[in-house]
Amino acid sequence: MMTRNQFLAAMAGSLAVKGRGATPPNSRIHIGIIGSGARGIFEAAWWAPLDACEVTAVCDVQETRRLEAKAALEKLYREHERPRRGIAIFRDYRELLERKEIDAVYIATPDHWHVTILVAALKAGKACHCEKPLGVSIEQEQAALRAVKRYGRPFFYGAERRSTPDARHAVELVLNGRIGEVKQVVVASPGSLSGGSARPAPVPKGFDWDMWLGPAPEAPYCPDRLEGRFHIRDYSLGFIANWGIHPLDQFQWWADNAGLTVPVTYQGTGRIASGGLYDCATSWDIRCTYANGLEMRYVDGRTFNSRPDLPRIPLGPPGKRGHNAVVFVGTEGTVAIAYDRVATAPASLAGSELAPGAIRLVRSPERDEARAGKNVWAYPAAAHQRAWIECLAENRPPVHTIETAVRSGLIAHLSDICIRTGRTIRWDERKGTITGDPEAAKMISRPMRKPWDEIA
User: Does the pLDDT at position 372 exceed 50?
Assistant: First the structure.
C-alpha cells in the first residue's frame, strides 16, 4: 500500500500553482516550523498563497514567539481566504516530529541546533528545509551528509540566491567561457562583530533557556548571548559562515559544475574578536587553493573594499565594492554576484544571451511567480521558498544538494581553523580530515551536551 508521503511524492500535477481550494486538504504538504523567530515567520509567509501546502505546527522554546507565530500565520491564511484546521504549537521539537501528519519541516533555529534537529527530522521521515549554515563544526557537516544519504528524505538548503534568475545567469556566463579562462576568484563576506556583555540577567518568563542552549555548553542567560548568537562560537562559526555561505554558495555553484570540490590548502591571516562575549572572526584574508592550482581568495568585507590588489567592480556605493560577493576574473571579462545584484565587465555581458546548446543550470523555481515586492531582499526568499514547495509537490530534485552545502561549509570551517591556528591547513578530501597538523585536526569536532549529541 502506498504511504501518504509516497502519495504526495507521486502528485506531479503542478500543485503549487493550482487555484485556491484546488488541492484537497488531506493532499497538501503539511509543514512544521522549528524555530519560529523573525526569520522563520518571514520565510514561512511566502507559503501562505500556495495551495499545495499549509503550516500545521510551529515550535519554539520561547512561549511568546510560538504564540506570535501562530497568530501571524493564521492571520495570513485568513487574508488569503485559505481554509485550514489551525496551527499546533510546541516547545520541544521532538514532539512536533512525532506528529505523523507533518510531511516536512523548516529548521530556522540558531546555528548550533541545525544538525541535531536535521538528523532527528530525517530519521523521523520528514522532508527538511534547513537554514544555512549547516553545522558549527566539520564533524556536524559530515554527520548531516551521512544522514541525508542514509534516510533518503528530500533535503533543501537555505542559500536562497540559487533561486534568482540573475545569479543563475551570471554563473552560467562563467561556466560557458564568456569571461574566458577563470584566472582569479575572490569571495567576500561581512566579518563578525566585537564586544558583547556576559552580564547575567533573569530568564524571561516562558523561555526554556536550557533547551535553547541544547547541544551548546551550559551558560547563564544574558541578553547579548541571545541577540549576539551569530558572533559567539558556542552557537555559530560567525559571519565567516553564517553570512559567508551566501557568496561561498554562489562560488560553489560554479565550482561543482566546473569539476572542482573543495580547496586542499588554506593559508592566510585573520583576527578573532576578544575582550567581550563575542569570539568569532572579525576580519580575514585566506588563500584557498585547489589541487589543480586554482586559488580562491576568501576575505572579509572591509578587506574587500580596502585592498588595491583585489578586483574593482561596482557592487556597492560609488567607489566601493560592497561587503559581500563572489567575483570571477577571466582573461576576457569579469562577473560578480552579490546578494542583491550582479555586475559584469564589460557591463553589456550581464544582459547577453547564451547560445543554443550552452551549459544550463537547473531553473528554480520552475514557475517563477514570485516578484519583487516590499524590497529587493524579499525576492530571493520568496522564490526559494516557492522552489521548495514545487520540489516537494512534484517529486523533483532541488537546485541544492547536500554535497554542495557541505562543501561551501567546509571552506568556511577550514578558513576559520586557519585563522585560529595561524598555520597553513591541509585538507584531505578522501579521508575527510586535516593532515599534518594533529592540533588543527582536533578542531574538526567540538563537544556537544548530552542528549543533544546524537548526530551519528
Answer: no
In contact, 185 and 328? CB cutoff 8 Å: yes
Question: Residue 152: which of 393, 363, 395, 453 has the closest Cα?
Answer: 395
- Sequence-distant (≥ 6) Cβ neighbours of residue 190 within 8 angstroms: 239, 243, 300, 301, 323, 324
Q: Is the peptide bond before 346 cis (omega within 30 degrees of 0)?
A: yes
- pLDDT score of 56 more than 70: yes
Q: For residues 306 and 320, is the Cβ–Cβ distance under 8 A?
A: no
Containing 148, the helix (H) or strand (E) segment is: helix 138-151
* Other Cβ atoms closer than 10 A to 433: 14
| Cα distance between residue 370 and residue 383, in whole Å | 5
> Residue 214: left if φ>0, alpha if ψ -120 to 50, beta else—which one?
left
Please give the Cα distance from 440 to 436 (Å, whole number): 9
Report how far apart, in Å, the C-alpha atoms of 78 and of each of 29, 73, 74, 117 are: 18, 9, 6, 30
Q: How many helices and strands, by DSSP H and E, does the chain display?
A: 14, 15
pLDDT at 291 over 50: yes
The pLDDT tens digits for 421-440 are: 999 999 999 999 999 999 99
Q: Which one-letter DSSP state was computed for residue 124?
A: T
Lowest mean pLDDT among 5-9, 28-32, 139-143, 412-416: 5-9
Residue owning grid cell 556583555: 197
Q: Residue 92, by phi and psi: left (phi above 0), alpha (psi -120 to 50) or beta?
A: beta
Take residue 156 and report the three cell numbers written for it.
533543501
Q: Which three cell numbers stand for residue 50?
A: 500556495
Contacts of 21 by beta carbon, 8 Å cutoff, 6+ apart? 51, 83
Report the share of the chain in percent with pLDDT over 70: 89
Please give the pLDDT value at position 378: 53
